[in-house]
Amino acid sequence: MTSEDRALVDRFLDMMAAEAGASRNTIAAYRSDLEQASAALPEGLGQASLEGLGALAPLWSGVAASTLARRSAALRRFYGFLHDEGFRPDDPSVALPRPRHQRPLPRILDMTEVNAMFLAAEERAASGQPEALRNLALIELLYGSGLRASELVTLPRRAVRAGQPFLILQGKGSKERLVPVSGRALEAVRQWLEACPAESPWLFPGGRKHLSRVRLFQIVRAMAADAGIAPDRVSPHVLRHAFATHLLSGGADLRALQTLLGHADIATTQIYTHVDSDRLVELVNQRHPLARR
Fold it and tell me: Catalytic: 263?
């Protein structure tokens, strides 16, 4: 593996640990998969072509379905990361094999746990400390609007405006979407902006740029611990899952939820129907015509 490829892999795995909360075993497996792919690709990982990735399928023909699924997932996430971060203008992972496998159910928090996190965050924010005000604004937007970690940390300073109950995001694939912003979130952001460094072009500055996803992950885990919740159960992505699941529990339409989450394929959104199966059973029992006979 070239030094350039190794640097890209290290960046990617740092993101996996921070944003997705990947375990050490997953990180080790992904590193091994990427190193093996790098050795098989004449151009290397970073410069791999569609043809090069397509040629991996015959090499993987004898591996178990679960291994094939993991290797494909590792490379897809890797190239998605390179594209999102601007290291590549394209995503060549469309050439990879697509094994059929069941999507794992997302980890979520129940309403009691979410409320506990908000109560703890609000109590700390009442002190007026800048860090506490920032953290409250972060969790309001994560759970209240269902933002991805990368979308949240890269928000410009003026993205959230007083009296404007929505913001315009450029998500995956450079697709724009409208995201609702609650009155609570607007107020939390207003208070944070009074303490936010005036010279920063970012809503959530950190170091020389914006807050990193690694730092966001650490903040969210610390907030979970502060609320008496096991930190390893919580991440920015878990709060996004909670946003989706609780909306669906409240009667949200699946298509509307797809739009709010920015999913290109509704099949991705449908995973939440499995998470909230109890509500769907109740819905059929209450609303189906035969249930009234």
Answer: yes
Known catalytic membership, residue 31 = no
Q: One-letter amino acid identity for 173?
A: G
pLDDT digits over 168-207, tens only? Answer: 776 665 567 778 888 899 999 999 999 999 889 999 998 8
What are the pLDDT digits (tens) for 208-238? 889 998 999 999 999 999 999 999 889 998 8
Domain spans in the chain, listed from the N-terminal domain onward: 3-95, 111-279
Give the chain's length: 293
Q: Looking at the structure, give the CATH architecture of the domain made up of residues 3-95.
A: Orthogonal Bundle (1.10)
Q: Specify whether domain 111-279 bears CATH 1.10.443.10.
A: yes
User: Of these residues, 77, 237, 241, 246, which one is catalytic?
Assistant: 237
